[in-house]
């Protein structure tokens, strides 16, 4: 019941729900205490509303945002509490006293300070918001970007300013209970004085040397940097915060290009959530600013998503435009008719080409280039093994999705059956259970199934834990602690950065640090797998170890229809997919290309023995050749490598762009010469 209420109210936890309930009940209690009147009751109710409100703001509660939409925003809540305090004084027969008049005058003056405070905060933020934001771009040597104001001044500024009324409220309540005016006027004085000081502290940041240059100066500096850097290949991306993974998956590929790379983003929120990279990044929210930017040296533009803002770069004829997408699949998005606006469409393998041919959406076969999937390079091929003679099977189900389709995840109908059979397998296997991070967020049934599967794996793991080399595991755990401490230092977790302008000025990646972080993450992964028994079952949650790391230590995988299956095919190892919707093996394979070389499981998981036989003995693996053929069909050949194919495709298209530009210049020169001759 509580879980359902949390989901409906869109709060993050039971504690957040309790805080919201206390805040809602606190205001009626304040009114009741004021009418009675009761100073102790009013004080208790006021404390509850202050604390609950503060907690919900700290949690970034969705409910707080909704209250402002129904005219119960932060300022209104503080005003209501202050008016109820005035009502309390009136009910205590203090309406003719100095405390009453002092409180009314204080709250009026205090609200008078809100206007200049709010105006200054808005002005500072607007003036520090430059027309572009960058990473790995040297603007500091070209323009002066001053330090950001202290975060204490601008972070949750309205909440901080309004909470200054606490001094006046406490002072008035003390005076109301003691018949002494001193406490009230001390509190009133503190509230007004601190409010004035807060406003004065903001004023230096709206003028002079503390304000960044104007838009024209910043844009000129970016153009100057572009003229010196001369980018040749651009990755262009526009989207919401939730879609940032679509550009993150291409960062490593961009770092490995033979040509000079540049990443162009359109939304500031994407830049804020972009993964670390050594590639120069320029975020240009304004369409006019982008269209006026000097990109004359760019020859190839890569697009990871089909969105409306692509038109702002597609209009540039001097470069060739390519749709690279964000993963091949059988979904309709992989054959979007919009794709015909690009000069070329790049797919992983033959499967992508065939999808466009079957869909018949206007993309010509001659415009499709197969380049593989460079992102899959970390996936090792062959039989990895656990190093202890006990094969490892990864169970990586996807989540339940939004539509309640029983075929989305195997967890609910088949999860326990799969795990029980794996745990009881003879000869034994090791089970790695890595659920999708969204599991249980929509379906309580899926969440319950996940908890049951977790309990099964953890119980079985405890029974095997004693068999490991405890000395080696202790040493590995010590290595983990050492590496994590160093990573925390390198990642800068100890302090809060300034604003976007300051991040633009200072956001140049330290290559030495970047390489050390990459090396330490590899060491962490190695130490992690050594920190528990080689035959010990494991539940793996969180972002580390990564999915591909789990692929590399596994000999086989059980999963559902998702990109996980398509990626695992790159390993060439046996895999099984659950037909949870009970379509039947033939129809299931017809609808899903990626399962054509899989062992198909029913919800009883009775067919799991076929997968285990293939893991233990290569001779008992009838699907080995099918997997090899499917891998090449979906992902392209192993040689040349995918990044080599990708670089070749970029180079070939760049030649076409140059040929087009030279042709245009030649025609323009001929036309000019003819016009001069006639004259």
What does this structure look like?
The protein is α/β, with parallel strands linked by helices. It contains 28 helices and 14 strands. Helix 17 links the parallel strand 7 and strand 8 (368-370).
pLDDT averaged over residues: 88
Shape from CA axes?
globular
Task: Please state the CA-atom Rg, rounded to the nearest Å.
Answer: 31 Å
Total beta-strand segments: 14
Characterize the biggest β-sheet: 8 strands, mixed
Q: Helix/strand/pairing class, anyone?
A: alpha/beta
Binned, the helix content reads: 40-55%
Give the terminus-to-terminus CA distance.
Answer: 88 Å
β-strand amount: 5-15%
* Low confidence ranges: 1-9
Number of helices: 28
Query: How are the strands of the biggest sheet laid out side by side?
Result: 1-4-3-2-5-6-7-8
What is this entry, summarized?
The chain has 28 helices and 14 strands. Helix 6 (98-128) runs parallel beside helix 10 (182-202) and helix 9 (165-178) packs antiparallel against helix 10. Residues 1-9 have low confidence and may be disordered.
Please name the defining characteristics of this protein:
14 strands; alpha/beta; 53% helix; 6-stranded parallel β-sheet; single chain; 8-stranded mixed β-sheet; 679 residues; 28 helices; disordered N terminus
How do the strands and helices of this protein lay out in sequence?
Blueprint: H1 2-9, H2 14-35, H3 39-58, H4 62-69, H5 74-91, H6 98-128, E1 133-135, H7 151-154, H8 157-162, H9 165-178, H10 182-202, H11 215-229, E2 233-237, H12 245-248, H13 251-255, E3 261-265, H14 268-272, E4 281-283, H15 287-291, E5 300-303, H16 311-314, E6 320-323, E7 344-347, H17 350-359, E8 368-370, E9 392-396, H18 411-423, E10 430-433, H19 444-465, H20 470-490, H21 500-506, H22 511-530, E11 538-539, H23 547-553, E12 556-559, H24 563-568, E13 575-578, H25 585-591, E14 599-601, H26 608-616, H27 624-635, H28 642-678
């Amino acid at each position: 019941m509580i879980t359902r209420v949390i989901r409906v109210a869109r709060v993050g936890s039971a504690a957040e729900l309790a805080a919201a309930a206390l805040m809602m009940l606190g205001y009626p209690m304040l009114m009741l205490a004021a009418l009675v009147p009761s100073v102790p009751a009013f004080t208790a109710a006021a404390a509850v509303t202050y604390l609950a409100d503060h907690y919900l703001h700290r949690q970034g509660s969705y409910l707080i945002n909704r209250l402002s939409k129904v005219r119960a925003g932060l300022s209104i809540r503080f005003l209501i509490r202050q008016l109820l305090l005035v009502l309390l004084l009136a009910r205590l027969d203090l309406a003719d006293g100095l405390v009453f008049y002092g409180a009314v005058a204080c709250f009026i003056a205090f609200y008078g300070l809100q206007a200049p405070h709010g105006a200054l905060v808005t002005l500072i933020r607007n003036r520090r918001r430059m027309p572009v934001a960058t990473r790995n771009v040297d603007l500091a040597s070209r323009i002066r970007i001053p330090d950001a104001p202290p975060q204490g001044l601008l972070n949750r500024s309205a909440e901080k300013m309004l909470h200054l009324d606490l001094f006046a409220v406490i002072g008035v309540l003390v005076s109301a209970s003691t018949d002494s005016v001193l406490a009230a006027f001390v509190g009133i004085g503190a509230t007004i004085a601190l409010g004035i000081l807060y406003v004065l502290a903001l004023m230096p940041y709206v003028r002079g040397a503390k304000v960044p240059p104007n838009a024209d100066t910043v844009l000129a500096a970016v153009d100057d940097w572009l003229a010196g850097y001369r980018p040749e290949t651009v990755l262009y991306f526009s989207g919401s915060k939730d879609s940032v993974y679509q550009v993150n998956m291409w960062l490593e590929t961009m770092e490995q290009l033979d040509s000079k790379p540049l990443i162009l983003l359109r939304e500031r929120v994407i830049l804020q959530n972009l993964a670390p990279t050594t590639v120069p990044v320029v975020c240009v929210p304004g369409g006019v600013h982008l269209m006026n930017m000097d990109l004359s040296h760019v020859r190839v533009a890569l697009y990871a998503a089909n969105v409306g803002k692509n038109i702002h770069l597609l209009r540039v004829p001097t470069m060739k435009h390519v749709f690279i997408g964000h993963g091949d699949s059988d979904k309709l998005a992989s054959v979007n008719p919009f794709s015909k606006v690009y000069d070329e469409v790049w797919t992983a393998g033959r499967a992508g080409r065939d999808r466009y041919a079957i869909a018949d959406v206007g993309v010509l076969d001659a415009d499709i280039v197969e380049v593989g999937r460079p992102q899959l390079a970390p996936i090792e091929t062959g039989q990895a093994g656990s190093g202890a003679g006990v094969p490892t099977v990864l169970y990586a189900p996807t989540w339940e999705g939004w539509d309640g389709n029983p075929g989305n995840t195997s967890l609910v109908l088949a999860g326990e059956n799969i795990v029980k059979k794996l745990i009881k397998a003879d000869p034994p296997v090791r089970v790695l259970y890595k659920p999708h991070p969204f599991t249980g967020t929509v379906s309580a049934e899926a969440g319950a199934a996940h908890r049951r599967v977790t309990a099964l794996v953890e119980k079985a793991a405890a029974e095997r834990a004693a068999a490991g080399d405890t000395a080696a595991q202790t040493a590995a755990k010590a290595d983990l602690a050492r590496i994590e401490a160093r990573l925390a230092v390198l990642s800068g977790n100890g302090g809060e950065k300034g604003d976007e302008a300051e991040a633009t000025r200072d956001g140049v990646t330290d290559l030495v640090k970047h390489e050390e972080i990459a090396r330490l993450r590899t060491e962490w992964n190695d130490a992690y797998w050594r920190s528990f028994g080689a035959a010990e079952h494991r539940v793996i949650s969180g972002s580390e170890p990564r999915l591909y790391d789990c692929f590399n230590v596994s000999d086989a995988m059980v999963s559902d229809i998702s990109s996980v299956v398509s990626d695992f095919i790159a390993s060439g190892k046996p895999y099984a997919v659950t037909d949870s919707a009970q379509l039947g093996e033939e129809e299931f394979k017809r609808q899903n290309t990626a399962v054509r070389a899989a062992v198909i499981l029913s919800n009883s998981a009775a067919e799991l023995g076929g997968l285990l036989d293939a893991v233990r003995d290569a001779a008992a693996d009838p699907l080995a050749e099918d997997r090899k053929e499917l891998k090449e069909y979906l992902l392209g050949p192993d040689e040349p490598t995918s990044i080599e194919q990708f670089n070749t495709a970029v180079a070939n298209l760049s030649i076409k762009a140059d040929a087009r530009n030279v042709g245009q210049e030649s025609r323009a020169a001929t036309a000019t010469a003819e016009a001069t001759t006639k004259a």
